[in-house]
Sequence to fold (157 residues):
Amino acid sequence: MIAIVLARRPPSPPSGVQSYEVPSAQHVAGPVQYPQSPPVGGDHASEWQNCGFYSSPVPKETAVHSMEHGAVWIAYRPDLQPDQVNRIRQITAAQSYVLASPYPDLPAPVVVSAWGRQLALDSAEDPRLEQFIAAFKQGPSTPERGAPCGGGVGTPR
Fold:
């Protein structure tokens, strides 16, 4: 008997995704200045941020380390409407390798990032948010795909 294995095609990225070159991914001590806000990769802290939902900002250097492991980071404005924040909380709770936190001075109400990729959204209800997660969580640009998204720093709620 011959088994045929069909390779599952990764989901297509949604429209509007920006791609960035990430030239370095070194562990460093202290703050890092990133060219994007929020960052999409680069030098980062030696500890990663535990994936999950946060109601307070997390250090960008630990969030970048989580993205190096394949996490998608949903950053949202601190003053985002409660129903939008609850939607982000639901999306985050439903899967692994997703990190969500408020981020001051965002260029849009919601910005979702993965290593080298980013999408700005006007709403957490935009279907492109979940499409982005499906396309880039543990995606092809992930430098350390499969590395942990737990056992780091922070206590998600």
